[in-house]
Amino acid sequence: MKEITVKVSRFDPACDPAPRLETYTVRVNDGARVLHVLHAIHDEIDPSLSYRYCCGSGQCGSCAVQVNGEPVLACMEEAHTGSVIEPLNLPVKKDLVVDLMPALQNLPPLQPKDAPCLPSKEQIDAIKPLRSCIECLACVSVCPAMTVTKFLGPTVMREEMRLALDPRNCDDRIATAVQEGLFTCTSCQACWKVCPKEIEIPGKAIEKLRALANRQGRTLPRHLEVAELIRKTGRSVPRTAESLLEKTGEVIEPYGPVKATVGFFVGCMYNLRQQQSALDAIEVLRRNGIRIIIPKEQVCCGSPLIRTGQLDYIDTLKKRNIETFASRGIDMVLTMCAGCGTTLKNDYRTPFTVIDINELLTKYGIEPPAKLPLRATYHDPCHLMRGQGIRREPRELLRQVVDLVEMPAICCGSGGGVRSGNPDEAAALGKRRGDEIRRTKADVVITSCPFCEFHISGHTDKPVRNIATILLEGYRKKDREAEMR
Predict the structure, then answer these.
(1) Is 245 left (phi over 0), alpha (psi -120 to 50) or beta?
(2) What span, in angstroms and rounded, lies between the C-alpha atoms of 82 and 68?
(3) Prediction pTM value
(4) Does a structural domain hold residue 182?
(5) What is the DSSP letter of 202?
(6) Which of 80, 99, 118 is the C-terminal boundary of a domain?
(7) 3-state secondary structure (DSSP) of residue 418
(8) Residue 116 confidence class, pLDDT cut points 50, 70, 90
(9) In whole angstroms, what is the distance from residue 143 CA to residue 31 CA?
(10) What single DSSP character describes residue 59?
(11) Residues 348 and 371 in one domain
């Protein structure tokens, strides 16, 4: 047995003005789950505590709660002293019990065909990754789009895709999915990262529904324009000035001994919009012993097309990019765009390793920069933190150069084609990000994605900088101090 102290949210909307955290200490067995702690509180201290549970084995979804801000199943999450247990971010009925019905009543039913029809093995295999949902609504509780639009959410989209694949269903689910907000998903991937059944809703449901919508001519007009631009120019943003590829040589040597050689996948935004951030990154890489090869034939990775369901041209882009780097014998390709990195790692099958700049600099180590007199906050790009699992590395780098203050990791609204296709939604999510930035009282916002950098700049009065730019500023300060000695 061991003693555990936790804080539990208590709230009765009928009589309480606001939720409050109550502290409880109980004795439970080693390895106890959060649900066991709640049982002990209820049975030994306060029988008025309200919470849900049923199977106790991770199969029904009834006991979903937040522990330290993350949705989990109480019956599966190990209990630790100091934990904060709260309800999901859904309307609270009492304490940890939330109202599930507004979301569950939107789940579409199967409309059976008149004649019997059995799915084939191929159809069953396609449906299988989508049918293990236990309707806990953890995904709904973290969906940013649902907070600012009429999007019915990831659970509904998962079910729409399941029905679209099922030959026993007779109605057209694609048109309905579009009406339910199919193109409002930002591809932030928060939903499947908290799913206890690990259902990859963005990739297995939403992007596939968008591809079906594209075949029916339901793709948003702005997304069609982006696709046409990629076909014509190889880039997802229009050219307005000399590109980064034109400004730089193909091989850039480091200032000192070579630690590693990388091929630099530049990406559309760094090539044509956020060029200074990329030039700053090149300087940081050279300072830290990285030889850079920048093939000029590289084109858009295809992420804007994949996220919006426009797949006809994807194989052409993949083939060109893979051949461009492989033909030079490059075995490690560097990205500094979170979206490009996610696409190359997860949507391509490459003969080379793909590595993000934060991973690279952490792996080989950096020359310590001078500390800047800045209080900074870091915005986690969704496609870096969730798409590539990179959260620790940028923070390790930043703590060497600034005083870092954390803020909640929420989507800024620039991904999934939302900024181009649903600008009002993107602006609303950008405003939420701006509000969080203001609460940190930071002097500067740092990120590691050109889309986040560009979008957030329009929703905060604080300067928004790329992590490479901040590191370079630290090196320049270090050089100035050395010259003065």
Answers:
(1) alpha
(2) 9
(3) 0.95
(4) yes
(5) I
(6) 99
(7) helix
(8) confident
(9) 31
(10) S
(11) no
- Pick left, alpha or beta for residue 468 (phi over 0 → left; psi -120 to 50 → alpha; otherwise beta): alpha
Q: What is the mean pLDDT of the segment spanning 335-360?
A: 98
Q: Outline where 121-188 has alpha helix (H).
A: 121-127, 138-142, 145-148, 154-165, 173-179
Range of the domain at 62: 2-99
Provide the sign of the torsion angle of the four alpha carbons 147, 150, 156, 158, taken in this order: negative
Q: What is the residue whose two structure tokens read 């203001």?
A: 438
- pLDDT tens-digit series, residues 72-111: 999 999 999 999 999 999 999 999 999 999 999 999 999 9
**Helix ranges (DSSP H) in 195-337:** 201, 207-215, 221-233, 244-247, 268-272, 275-287, 303-307, 314-326
Give pLDDT tens digits for 389-444. 999 999 999 999 999 999 999 999 999 999 999 999 999 999 999 999 999 999 99
Q: Is residue 431 part of a domain?
A: yes
Secondary structure percentages of the chain, helix, strand, coil, to 5: 45, 15, 40
Pairing of the two strands 20-28 and 2-10: antiparallel
Amino acid identity at 257: P
User: What is the C-alpha R_g of the chain?
Assistant: 25
- Name 335's Cβ contacts closer than 8 Å, sequence gap at least 6: 265, 267, 341, 344, 354, 355, 356, 357
CA atoms within 13 A on the CB side of 172: 10
In a domain, 332, yes or no: yes
Tokens read off for 16:
């309480």
- Residue pair 262/292 in contact (Cβ under 8 Å)? The answer is yes
Cα torsion angle, 371, 372, 374, 376, sign: negative
Reference 164, options 105, 110, 94; nearest CA is 110
Within-domain flag for 224: no
Q: How far is CA 280 from CA 139, 203, 251, 270, in A?
A: 38, 33, 16, 11
Helices 154-165, 207-215: inter-axial angle, 10-degree rounding: 50
Instruction: At 213, list the tokens.
Output: 């919508």
CA dist., res. 437 & res. 412, Å (int): 11
End residue of a domain, out of 314, 342, 357: 357
Helices (H), 180-238: 190-194, 201, 207-215, 221-233
Contacts of 35 (CB under 8 A, 6+ apart): 53, 56, 63, 74, 75
Task: Please count the structural domains in the chain.
Answer: 4
Rounded to whole angstroms, how far apart are CA atoms 263 and 187? Answer: 27
- Angle (CA) 311 271 449, round 5°: 75
Q: Give dist(CA 417, CA 186) in Å, integer.
A: 7
- Give the C-alpha separation, 453 to 93, whole Å: 39
Is residue 92 within 8 A of residue 82, CB to CB? The reply is no
DSSP structural state of residue 109: P
